[in-house]
Specification:
The complex is a heterodimer. Chain A contains 16 helices and 16 strands. By secondary structure, chain A is α+β, with helices and mostly antiparallel strands. Chain B is α+β, with helices and mostly antiparallel strands. Chain B contains three helices and three strands. In chain B, helix 1 packs across helix 2. The longest helix of chain B is centred in the N-terminal third of the chain and has 16 residues. The chains are: A alpha+beta, B alpha+beta. Chains A and B meet through strand 2, helix 1, strand 9 and strand 16 of A and strand 1 and strand 3 of B. Chain A: This is Aspartyl/glutamyl-tRNA(Asn/Gln) amidotransferase subunit B.
């Protein structure tokens, strides 16, 4: 009998507000240590927190986007634990009454199937500071710039049954927070982090004991950590052992998880309502204002792309997976054929970006330039083959498309007499193939087209070459 | 409600209180008394009453998302027991 893996994810999304959640300190990344601090986020005695309205609005936006219950009345609580990067000795979080209740996300799997993953809740809380262990001998340096940065912790139901489903859910959520512009989604810098709860059971049996894996800061690490954890737990269970409920750390260098600390004691957070903060009450006007400002969401955009640009479901899904890519595509496709642009963006462009390890927002070829390139194919100035060469060049070296076409004489040959001369030459030079074609070997047309294109250095208009070749070849001698 | 010596030691540890062993029995009995006093509250019928998160019947005011704090690192770190290169220094913490 086989094992079934049960996975639930806890995602911490740093909300991209200008200031911290409970004080007016800036949240910008990379400042001098402790230069973004004040008595509130340093936990000076007597300092009091005041909630940032923008953090609340961003939580509302997520709630509306996943069709979740929005609690009109929610409460901040203290989560008590000691660590030097948490100056108050407690983290302000939400416990019994979070701002966002039950919702759901529909994820698309690679085989085209869909699966609904439940969201249990999402709550507002503050981030901790950073500990620097390496810089000092026998001491730890503490930078509290990040302390108090707003986080939205989004907790899923244990609904995922494979690492692929977990990755699909995380990607969908990642795309969603970027669409909503509530989080920059930068996983390397830790603005979007994920913990995974993983357990095994026999199908249909109650849930097994779970391990919580921390420190998953990429989609790939999430997948690998779950795969490792499945094997580890399976080994233990099949040799008659039992799983210890604990927190484990994923080590990407060794591709393994290892125990961090027993969760038993650390788990005793002694939550209680924070007397420094009043209950958060949401009125309908505030919710409605956020609803009005919501952008088009990924699923709606996918539908519209299929309609407006005549794209397949697959193409539309790829192009709307991220907001930046979708915006780029739409800028390119403005006034030119949608399907042709989709082929260019998904093929040459994504291929080149992938190879160079560049994100779409840093793409060296602007949408305007790619549109011009596609227009030059459409107006028959250049052939598709030449366009690919020009694309390679402007991607790596930059330059202006029309200038490159002119200076290098890449303009497509559309002069019928010039093409006819080349066609005649090729036909005269290959009597054997001509005889073969006339004897019924239709496939030889490709050979002739190739020869003419070669003779023209790729510049002859392929449609005209085709037409002229057929004309000449089918004409009896 | 039993507040035994183990519970006292555990609570003291969680609160990072250095409680000498000889004081544990006395603290246990004192806490036991406090707890039984609190326990009397459970005699009050609370069915249908929403839990009170705050004694004041007010709502949380919200702050506009505008930077209002300047860099005052020098002044704020002046009373730190140890600091270097703008960082607070604490005894080595290893996870």
């Amino acid at each position: 009998m086989d094992w079934e893996v049960v996975i639930g994810l806890e995602v911490h999304a740093q909300l991209n507000t200008a200031t911290k959640i409970f004080c007016g300190c800036p949240t910008t990344f990379g400042a001098e240590p402790n230069s973004h601090t004040c008595p509130v986020c340093l936990a000076m005695p007597g300092a009091l927190p005041v909630l940032n309205g923008a953090a609340v609005d961003k939580a509302i936006a997520l709630s509306l986007a996943i069709g979740a219950e929005l609690n009109r009345h929610s409460v901040f609580a203290r989560k008590n634990y000691f660590y030097p990067d948490l100056p108050k000795g407690y983290q302000i979080s939400q416990y019994e009454l979070p701002v966002v209740g039950k919702g759901q996300l529909t994820v698309q799997m690679a085989d085209g199937s869909e699966k609904i993953i439940g969201v249990t809740r999402a709550h507002l809380e503050e981030d901790a500071g950073k500990s620097l262990h390496e810089a000092f001998v026998g001491q730890t340096g503490i930078d509290l710039n990040r302390a108090g940065t707003p986080l939205l912790e989004i907790v899923s139901e244990p609904d995922m049954r494979s690492s692929a489903e977990a990755v699909a859910y995380l990607k969908k959520l990642h795309a969603l927070v970027r669409y909503l512009e509530i989080c920059d989604g930068n996983m390397q810098e830790g603005s979007f982090r994920c913990d995974a709860n993983v357990s095994l059971r026999r199908p249909g049996a109650p849930f097994g004991t779970r391990a919580e894996i921390k420190n998953l800061n990429s989609f790939r690490f999430l997948e690998k950590a779950i795969e490792y954890e499945i094997l580890r737990q399976k080994d233990i269970l099949e040799s008659g052992g039992s799983i210890v409920q604990e927190t484990r750390l994923y080590d990407a260098n060794r591709d393994e998880t290892r125990s961090m600390r027993s969760k038993e004691e650390a788990n005793d957070y002694r939550y209680f309502p924070d007397p420094d903060l009043l209950p958060l009450v949401l009125d309908e006007a505030r919710i409605e204002k956020v609803r009005q400002s919501l952008p088009e969401l990924p699923d709606a955009k996918r539908e519209r792309f299929m309609q407006a640009y005549q794209l397949s479901a697959y193409d539309a899904a790829v192009l709307t997976a991220g907001r930046d890519l979708a915006d780029y595509y739409e800028s390119v496709a403005d006034g030119v054929e949608g399907k042709l642009v989709a082929n260019w963006v998904m093929g040459d462009l994504l291929g080149a970006l992938n190879k160079a390890g560049i994100e779409i927002q840093d793409c060296p070829v602007s949408a305007e330039k790619l549109r011009l390139l596609v227009q030059r194919i459409e107006d028959k100035t250049i052939s598709g083959k030449i366009a690919k060469e020009i694309f390679e060049e402007i991607f790596h070296q930059g330059g202006e498309i029309d200038a490159i076409i002119d200076s290098r004489g890449l303009r497509q040959i559309t002069d019928a007499s010039a093409i006819a001369a080349m066609v005649d030459e090729i036909i005269a030079a290959n009597p054997q193939q001509v005889a073969g074609f006339r004897a019924g070997k239709d496939k030889l047309l490709g050979f002739f087209v190739g020869q003419v294109m070669k003779a023209s250095q790729g510049k002859a208009n392929p449609d005209q070459v085709n037409t002229l070749l057929l004309e000449r070849l089918q004409k009896p001698e | 409600m039993a507040f035994d010596q183990d519970a006292v030691r555990r609570t003291a540890h969680l609160a990072r209180l250095a409680l000498p062993q000889e004081e544990v029995p006395a603290v246990a009995s004192q806490l036991e008394k406090i707890m039984s006093l609190v326990e009397e509250l459970s005699a009050i019928p609370t069915e249908g009453v929403l839990p009170m998160a705050h004694p004041l019947d007010l709502e949380q005011p919200l702050r506009p998302d505008q930077v209002s704090n300047q860099d005052e690192r020098q002044r704020l770190m002046a009373n730190a027991p140890a600091a270097e290169h703008g960082l607070f220094l604490v005894p080595k913490v290893i996870e």
